[in-house]
Amino acid sequence: MSATEFVVRRRLTEPQQERRAKILTAARELASDGGYEAVVMRDVAERAGVALGTLYRYFASKDHLLAEVLVEWGGELETGLRRSAPQGETPLERVLAVLRRAARQIAAEPVLAAAVTAALLSADPAVSDTQPEFSAMMRRWLDLAVEDEDVRDRDHVVEMLEHVFFSSMIGLVNGRRAPSDVGEQLERAARLLLSG
Questions:
Q1: What is the separation of C-alpha 113 from the centre of its chain, rounded to a whole number of angstroms?
Q2: Which pLDDT value is given to residue 2?
Q3: What is the share, in percent, of the chain residues with pLDDT greater than 70?
Q4: Which helix (H) or strand (E) holds 72?
Q5: What pLDDT is stored for residue 28 in this prediction?
Q6: DSSP letter at 95?
Q7: Angle at the Cα of 34 from the Cα atoms of 31 and 35, rounded to 5 degrees
Q8: Using CA atoms, how far apart are residues 68 and 133, in angstroms rounded to an integer?
Q9: Taking the chain, what is the end-to-end CA distance rounded to the nearest angstrom?
Q10: In whole angstroms, how far apart are CA 138 and each of 41, 50, 71, 131, 145?
C-alpha cells in the first residue's frame, strides 16, 4: 500500500476528522478567493492552524486536497437533494431540477469551481482515487432524480451527463465557457438523452 492510499483510506478519529475539516475549509476559502494558484499548501496549513507536516498526512498534494474539496462541495449538494427531493412529474423534469441546482452552485462560486476542476484533471495518483468517488456521487444525484422509474439505457444516460458536466467544467477552467453555459449544456444534454 502506498503512502497516498494510506492517506485516502485510513479511518480517522474525531479530532482527526475535525482537523481534516479545518484543512478543507481553509483550502476552499483560498480557492474561492483566488482560484487554483491561490491554494498554497503552507498558506492552507497556516489558515487551518495545523503544521505543514500534518497537512501532508491528510492530503498528498495540492491537487489531492482540492479534489477532496470538490467531493465535499458535491456532498453538500447531495445532502440538499436528500433533504429536499427534486420536483417534477417525469424523470427528465427531476433530472433538470438536479442539474439546475448544481449549475447554481457553480454560478455562485465560479472561481472555486474552476480551481477544483483543474485539480480533478491532475495526473496525481491521489486524485485518481477521488475521481471515481465524485463520479459515484454524481450518479447518486441523478438516481435521486430518476428514482425507481424505468429509464432506457439509464447507466449510459448517467455516463453521458457526467461527460457533458466535465466537458463544460473544463471549458470553465480554460475560460471558454461562462458559469451559466455549464447549466445550459447540461440541460440540453439531459433533454436529448431523456426526452422520448
A1: 8
A2: 37
A3: 94
A4: helix 62-83
A5: 97
A6: H
A7: 55
A8: 9
A9: 48
A10: 28, 31, 10, 11, 11
The domain ranges of the chain are: 3-194
Q: Which CATH number does the domain 3-194 belong to among 3.60.15.10, 1.10.357.10, 3.50.50.100, 3.40.50.300?
A: 1.10.357.10
pLDDT digit string (tens) for 11-41?
878 888 999 999 999 999 999 999 999 999 9
Q: How confident is the model at residue 3 (pLDDT cuts 50, 70, 90)?
A: very low
Region 63-68 average pLDDT: 96
Residue 95 grid cell: 433530472
* Cell numbers standing for residue 62: 495540492
C-alpha cell at position 1: 500500500
If DSSP codes are grouped into helix, strand and coil, which group holds residue 84? coil
Q: In whole angstroms, what is the distance from residue 21 CA to residue 90 CA? A: 37
- Which whole number is the average pLDDT over 80-89? 90
